[in-house]
Amino acid sequence: MTTLTGTWALVRFAVRRDRVRILVWIASIVALVVVTAASVKGLYPTQADLDAAAAASVDNPAALAFNGPAYGLDTVGGQVAFQVGAFGLTVVALMSLLMVGRLTRAEEESGRLELVGSMAVGRHAALAAALVVVSAMDVVVGLLVGLSLAAMDLPVEGSILFGLSFTVLGLFFIGVEAVTTQLTESSRTASGIAGGVLGASFAIRAIGDVGPGTLSWFSPIGIVQKARPYAGDVWWPLTIVLVLTAGLALTGAWLRSHRDFGSGLVPPRAGPAHGSAALGRPVGLAVRLQRGTVIWWALALLLLGVAYGSIANSIEDFIGDSEAVADMVASVGGASIVDSYLATSLLVLAVITSAAAVQITLRMRGEETAGRVEPVLAAPVSRLGWMRSHLAVALGGTALIMAAGGLGTGAAYALVIGDASEVPRLVGAALVQVPAIWVVVGVASALYGLLPRWAAVAWAAVAVGFVVAMFGTLLDLPSFVTDLSPFEHTPAAPAVSAAAGPLVVLLVVGAALTAGGLAAFRRRDLG
What we know:
24 helices; 527 residues; mainly alpha; single chain
């Protein structure tokens, strides 16, 4: 037990330090489920609407691949579980693995854990504290999800099982991250490996659900969804994941006791003897630091665009007789329901890309707090030059990510209808959303320059954009709320022609915010 000495002190410290982050994660996931449930009730108010939606989804490969198996789609609960689906479970998994990495390997990498360990703290106390904190987060998420859905008059047993599925999958990826943090010295690499496991789990589940479903049993996401909340309520598949979770946690503890502090079981490979000449310039360094992030986001948007484009030609059959869904898609305007759907899809891709914009922009804050900015500025590099280099990557990278989403949408739609001209048309329509994304970059850069400790508030811009884009029409939000989203001021291409006026205004707003951030960063103290 001496190896666990100080665990509860570290638990209290982690909760005290990350209380805002913990609350935001939990509130965001619960809000996603609750708002989705409310929107499902609004979209399908009658049993006929539910039956039409079930008939349209049950044989739709794209819907099955991205949401999961079609269980109980003729009920409100079944539709909620389907619409939240694999995406909601993936968000819980991301929360778990990122938080465990932050509380373990990132602390060790920064040197803070070495200082803590010099006191009366056991060898496994930090890992145990991280497991306790993040497990509690998963339990609270599952509990609130279940209680919230039960309070919305959905079946109690199905609601509890649905919430428990969130908890169980979150616990599994706690175990995954507990193992990967022992393998490498870098917290980013450890979380990247765990993220790769999550991506593989999603892909295996998607392939299995499109097929007979056997392959889904080899994915933790697929096993969790076999619980069938609101469609039979099968509890035993969750025990399989819990057993695997216990094995991963024990493996992580065993690996922790077989490596040196600060090192990983897999030694880092030696870098090249001579660095690229581009690394001697601020832009080259920023590109090198951010290229992996941009590439992975672009690949994700490309695949998501393929999913959206593949069902565009059959969107009228998918909508069926649901007037609420038809009104939501047609609210963007345009004479063609297909173009209205494509415009809505590109809007969703743009909101997702805004999350990438915040992540890439706030990398500057991470570099500053880690103490890596001062050595760079000690060289003949100006403050403005350093910040402009990262902003250039943020602006150019988000444009590239959005273009990848448009390319995936256009290529899939062109393949379905046999018209290659749709590819450049939809890539151009996707780029129309870029000025709104650059406004989000401006918000993040302004907060970083003016109030660096509050830079994470930039994620609120993403949250507002998501809520307005996905649920603004369904929830009948007032105009003063919807106008807060920059995406509400972007022409809904390709459903309508792209007017230059709103785009110019968005570019001016984004430029003003970015300039304010640059000016503030030039005058404030580092750190």
